[in-house]
Amino acid sequence: MKKSKALLIIIVVLALTLGIGYMDIWGYDGNGAGNASDIKLGLDLAGGVSITYQVVGDENPSETDMSDTIYKLQQRVANYSTEAQVYQEGSNRIAIEIPGVTDAETILSQLGRPGALYFISATDSAGNPNYSEQPVFAEDGSYSYQYALNKSIDELIAEGSVVITGTDVTDARAVVTQDNMKNNKYAVSLSLTQEGAAKFAEATERAVARGHETIGIYYDGAFVSVPRVDEAIYNGDASISGSFTYEEAENLASTIRIGGLSLELEELHSKVVGAQLGVDAINTSLKAGAIGLGIVALFMIVVYFIPGIAAAIALFFYVALIVLLLIGFNDVLTLTLPGIAGIILSIGMAVDANVVVFARIREELGREASVEDAINTGYAKALSAIIDGNVTTLIAAVVLMLLGPSNVKGFAQTLALGIVVSMFTALFVTKWLMKALYALGLKSVVFYGKGKEKKSIDFLSKKMIFIVLSVLVIVAGFVFMGINKGAGKGALNYSLDFVGGTATTVDFNENYTLQQLTDTVVPEIEAITGSTVQVQTVQNSNEVIFKTSSLESSVRQALEQMFMTKFGVDSKSIQTETISSTISDEMKRDTIIAVIVAILCMLVYIRIRFKDFRFGFSSVLALVHDVLVVLAFYAAARVSVSNTFVACMLTIVGYSINATIVIFDRVRENMANAGKSDIVTIVNKSVTQTLSRSIFTSLTTFVMVALLYVMGVSSIKDFALPLMVGIGCGCYSSVCLAGAFWVILTQKFPAKAKK
Length: 755
What we know:
This protein has 21 helices and 17 strands. With 755 residues, the chain is of the alpha+beta class. Helix 9 (337-366) runs antiparallel to helix 10 (371-403).
């Protein structure tokens, strides 16, 4: 490479890093347009709109109907944000919290009034029209024709003209079809229940016989679509086509979905609520991230010299690009604390890719290769480990995006985005920067470091000690759970997100900041309730919502008395409601299914890449070990199990599988060149060769999370502490257990000899 080209590469990368960083901070116009403040933040970081609905006409709806309605509403509001929350208040109320928005009226108009969806035949049994086009006049005297009912809904139901209702619809989706000219067209696909399919078959058959009549879809007092029936539909799968744009098709599908709720709801009240974690949580997280990034960059430079400088520049480029992409994807991605976890994991994997390459380069230099050859060979040999490690984690992220519930999607989105960008920076940006620095004259081996052949550490001779130690820790975790449950405290310290609790709304006589509430009011509440407290302020008012574990009437009275005595609050300004968990049984089920599918997909990928099922099972055993050890820590330390628990566990799964794959990739390579070496020798050698990588990657990621723990607010500490344990555990299991599992499986299930 010529010096002029090398200099140009460095200038371009630095210019891009500074330019993107400038846009991240000051926007593309220098005045804040399109800067980092446009990133859509979740309820925990920025607040949003809170809407409370009440069931129409039934003060005590069944638990099944409420659960079904909540689940369907969760699917509906996911269109606004993957981090939206839906939960039950009292016996007949449902609360919806949508982050990243501040206009409650707009949300209400778009969301509509849940329930009351009817499919109405064009004519009754006598052939009289049930609806017709009628003129609607505008203020300027112009008019247009719109469909309107000729009878009341009650009359239509009584005479049998209502074909099906919203509860007969199981799903409605916007889909893409093609016409005869191969042009894309948009339609709405409907799926009906078994009972709904039978009624719809009869109605569509009658509509065709009467000259292809229409069936009007009537929702919230107006017709949203009046499609003509082209043919009888017998299988319960219908399609509404027309000159739709995708947005129009999606809006119609959303309307039908929300109209298919088990209960009819009406709005009780709406308000804009503040962040659950507060501004301090964002500021401290940003400071911790910046300091951590600086420490990691300095570490890379000190340990790896010239390659470390290239990696540090690429790492800053990576962060600037990630922020820019988060700004660009703000319509579909909401950043929350779990999302930050995904970014932290991807930063760790970006560092990991560089460490794997740099270790390879040093090995080649130790074999007396030239620096240029060592760089090229190092990247070539490290490529499979980097691809396999990142792709297995990316598979998990994609599966979680597609199948996981809304509270998992934010984590999966940021993780997937981070993995793609980190692979690009590690494999291209760092590589070209290193080659450019080499071309500018930094060619001495001293600048790159020469690796020495390391004596293999006999990890496998101690494999039973490691396995017994791990089993004891895991068993201790279950013992702690049993003791806690027996003491009536619950096996784990479940937060409101999992078990629900009590929401106390207090209208104070003065306006308190979130920090003031945290310092003065929260300790008083905790002393009375013995519960952790979630705090939400209400915009443009003195109202504050305190969420705690479920409280008995005596405790509620003591709490009310405290507000009156110490803060001068009138008893009429205090309202208390029982609230359900924000993580429903359906969401738990969806999460478990998504994780199982993700693990199965990872197993298939590893089986294809390594051509040995034992590598895949060993990897899964190692990550299950890590999850169980962290679960034991949650039980022993009584760390709050909140919605970040899921993100923490998923982060550990991604981190563990990546670390194990790097070691197994080296095992595969050494086996190809092993000659007569036995598998125990090969595994010990492979673990030793990758030991510095395992330690350095764990250390850099640990530093990032540790700074979040040291500088963060209490909620962030509850997230960071178990994650630190998981990072350490992931390093331990990869080094001490994964290879041992593979050896045991290989000895128990030897490969069949080739004929």
